[in-house]
Write a structure and sequence with these properties.
Layout lengths: L1 H25 L4 E3 L6 E3 L6 E8 L3 E5 L4 E4 L2 E2 L2 E9 L9 E9 L2 E10 L5 E3 L3 E4 L4 E9 L5 E6 L7 E3 L11 E7 L8 E10 L5 E4 L3 E5 L17 E5 L7 E8 L3 H6 L1 H13 L12 E6 L19 E2 L7 E2 L2 H8 L3 H4 L2 H5 L2 E6 L7 E4 L12 E6 L7 H16 L7 E7 L2 H12 L18 H4 L17 E4 L1 E8 L15 H16 L7 H10 L25 E2 L8
Parallel strand pairs: 2-9, 11-18, 20-21, 20-24, 24-26, 25-30, 27-29
Antiparallel strand pairs: 1-3, 3-7, 4-6, 4-8, 5-7, 8-9, 10-12, 12-15, 13-16, 14-15, 16-17, 16-18, 19-21, 22-23, 25-26, 28-29
Length: 574
């Protein structure tokens, strides 16, 4: 009996020991991964992801020492689990970066996972926006890249070249932690201006490898100036050109919004001379320049700004917004035109004068006024063309608009060849008004029939010498859309100086300009001869140049000008 009790006690002890050993074995935490965890690499982009599948003997926890990693979920239960590791941001440090993710089971650290994120090629600028005063200044743009090869360049719009000067080496050297020097020239305009550009790196074949964010330079407009002496330099007459053929065709230039200091410094005269050169830059005026007399008359304004609160000699007013309309005090313009003795003492010369008012602003605008009459109800050729220094004195836009307004509308009384779909069909009343203009020899570049056998330029369409395309690729025909109307009015060519200020004046327009010049230069005895015109015209056809083939690009792109204003008012004698 005693032996049986001893055996039973021994058996119970063995069971207890075995049970205790089994329990101790189950409590050792472990985590087993289903795949290789030696090379855990995240992509360089934001939200790059790794997914790890594993099993755990106990509840588990995960944490990381990196702020650029997100772990989901951060904990789980016994059994099979998945852990997602995300990159919270793209790696723009310029180098591969590493982090540690620690997995624990039942609070005991089990495994440290080494996570790396690929680097993203970077081109960083320290500062993206620079505010510059109107006087201009030099600035340093600090930037850096992790690329060890490539050619760094600046990418910018064409207009930036007019007022930013970059250091020479930026387009030819590899740049690592470099400084780009930029000189900002003074802003002569009262309008604020902004330049945007980027630094880019290309390989040897010219393929872009990387680009910086946009860098902006914002320059304030110039302050408003005030004249101190309104009388001494005002109303002075200077003859800029004397005719050598015919009786002389009068052109008078004057400026609005110019200070006494502008006249004293010579700036006023430079602007007037530039305006004269632009007036003679298109055929046929270019080749008939010797028939013209040109004067400038000085005009001192109190301010060199336009708008409410400012005072200028001719009180020019720009409507602004999407409008290009300019109004001015035409009586004072006529008064200053007659500061020229030859014009004041010869009414017939006054009636033939083209007055050009150049506004001291770079605003995109321009308007011409014609249809002035005399006291005996006669209608004369006198016209006023208002044109700002659009984009600056050397700007192609300034030249184009001055030619459109002052040669086209003002001197030759041509009408616009552009159209708006929203304008629809031209009203019958407007057709009638324009046909009355044509009885004066005006508006000869538009018609109100598309019939090639009836249109007023049919003589060109029937002349083989004007068949085919010209040097600009234009073909004489009938193209619907003119006088701002989409239908019911026709123009001679698809593009022209009277449409988008390009491709010169077309043949009917050149003919009208030629007639006006010869009629004014020689008076009544002169009689038009078509063959003489063709002989002259074929020798002086407009030819493309680098600038005459393009439109006014950034400046006023897509904006047509206000149509010419037919005033029906009597001229004022001085």
């Amino acid at each position: 009996m005693r032996n049986m009790k001893t055996k039973l006690s021994f058996l119970l002890l063995c069971v207890f020991v075995l049970t205790a050993c089994s329990k101790d074995a189950e409590e050792i935490p472990s985590i087993q991964f289903n795949s290789d965890i030696e090379n855990l690499i995240l992509g360089a982009e934001k939200d790059s992801r790794l997914t790890l599948n594993f099993s755990s003997t106990h509840s588990w926890q995960a944490n990381t020492d990196a702020v650029w990693i997100t772990i989901s979920p951060a904990q789980g239960n016994t059994g099979n689990s998945s852990l997602a590791i995300f990159a919270k941001e793209e790696n723009r440090t310029g180098e591969i970066r590493e982090a540690t993710v620690t997995l624990s089971a039942d609070g005991v650290p089990i495994k440290e996972l080494k996570i790396s994120q690929q680097k993203k090629d970077v081109l960083e600028v320290k500062q993206a926006t620079y505010n510059v005063p109107a006087e201009g200044m030099s600035i340093q743009i600090e930037f850096a890249t992790n690329l060890q090869e490539g050619i760094s360049k600046i990418r910018y719009s064409q207009d930036v070249q007019d007022w930013l000067i970059f250091n020479d080496n930026v387009s030819t050297k590899i740049l690592l932690d470099k400084i780009l020097n930029v000189k900002v020239l003074p802003n002569p305009s009262r309008a604020e201006r902004t330049a945007t550009f980027q630094i880019v790196i290309e390989d040897a074949a010219g393929k872009q490898l990387i680009e910086s964010g946009t860098i902006s330079i914002i320059q304030k407009g110039a302050g408003v100036g005030t004249s101190t002496d309104l009388e001494t330099d005002d109303g002075k007459v200077v003859k800029l050109q004397t005719h050598s053929k015919g009786n002389g065709i009068p052109v008078v230039l004057m400026g609005d919004g110019f200070l006494d200091a502008d006249i004293q410094s010579g700036f006023y005269r430079k602007v007037m001379e530039k305006g004269m050169e632009y007036f003679f830059s298109e055929e046929p005026v270019k080749s008939l320049r010797e028939y013209f007399d040109v004067w400038m008359v000085t005009a001192v304004s109190l301010n060199d700004a336009f708008g409410e609160g400012y005072s200028t000699k001719f009180s020019c007013w720009l409507e602004g917004g999407k409008s290009t309309l300019i109004k001015g005090d035409e009586k004072i313009v006529q008064y200053y035109t007659q500061a020229v003795d030859e014009i004041r003492t010869n009414a017939e010369m006054f009636y033939e004068t083209m007055s050009i008012v150049i506004l001291n602003t770079e605003t995109y605008a321009g308007t011409t006024y014609f249809g002035y009459g005399t006291e005996d109800d006669g209608v004369v050729e006198y016209a006023i063309g208002y044109c700002p220094i659009i984009g600056g004195m050397e700007s192609e836009a300034f030249r184009q608009v001055l030619c459109h307004e002052c040669i086209g509308h003002g001197f030759a009384k041509l009408l616009d060849e552009y159209s708006y779909q929203s304008m629809g069909q031209i009203p019958a009343k407007e057709i009638e008004s324009n046909q009355i203009l044509q009885t004066f020899g005006w508006a000869m570049n538009v018609d109100f029939t598309g019939d090639k056998s009836q249109v007023i330029w049919k003589h060109f369409l029937e002349d083989e010498r004007y068949a085919g395309t010209d040097a600009f690729g234009e073909t004489l025909s009938t193209y619907e859309g003119a006088c701002t109307y989409w239908s019911g009015a026709w123009r001679p060519t698809n593009e022209s100086m009277m449409r988008n200020n390009i491709h010169g004046f077309n043949a009917p327009s050149r003919e009208a300009i030629y007639k006006r010049i010869m009629r004014t230069a020689y008076g009544t005895p002169w009689q038009y001869n078509y063959e003489e015109f063709v002989k002259f015209d074929r020798m002086h056809l407009p030819q493309p140049t680098r600038v005459t083939t393009r439109n006014v690009e950034q400046i006023g792109k897509g904006r047509y000008f206000a149509p010419p204003q037919f005033v029906k008012r009597t001229l004022v004698n001085r």
